[in-house]
Amino acid sequence: MALFLLVVIIAMVLGIIGFVVQGLLYLLVIGCVLLLLDLAWIGSRWSRSHRRRVR
């Protein structure tokens, strides 16, 4: 969970820098992609841990 929060913070910082600085729009794109990938990763981990075990 700490890794998830760290990646979300990094994505937010890259997005803010990319939005504020004129020539660095690619950082905004990288931040958005990183955030989406991180959310997909945590979603897949969460869904795998909540499956019922059949005995």
Describe the structure.
- With 55 residues, this protein is mostly helical.
- It has 2 helices and no strands.
- It has one domain.
- It has helices at 2-20, 25-49.
- Helix 1 (2-20) runs antiparallel to helix 2 (25-49).
- The longest helix has 25 residues, at 25-49.
- The mean pLDDT is 79.
Number of domain units: 1
Q: Which outline best applies?
A: elongated
Element string (H = helix, E = strand): HH
The pLDDT mean sits at 79
Count the E strands: 0
Distance between the termini: 29 Å
Sheet with the most strands, sense and barrel status: none
> What's the helix count?
2
Our Rg estimate from Cα atoms comes to 15 Å
Strand proportion: under 5%
* Share in helix: over 70%
- Which regions are unreliable across 5 or more consecutive residues at pLDDT < 50? none
Which structural class is indicated by helix and strand composition? mainly alpha
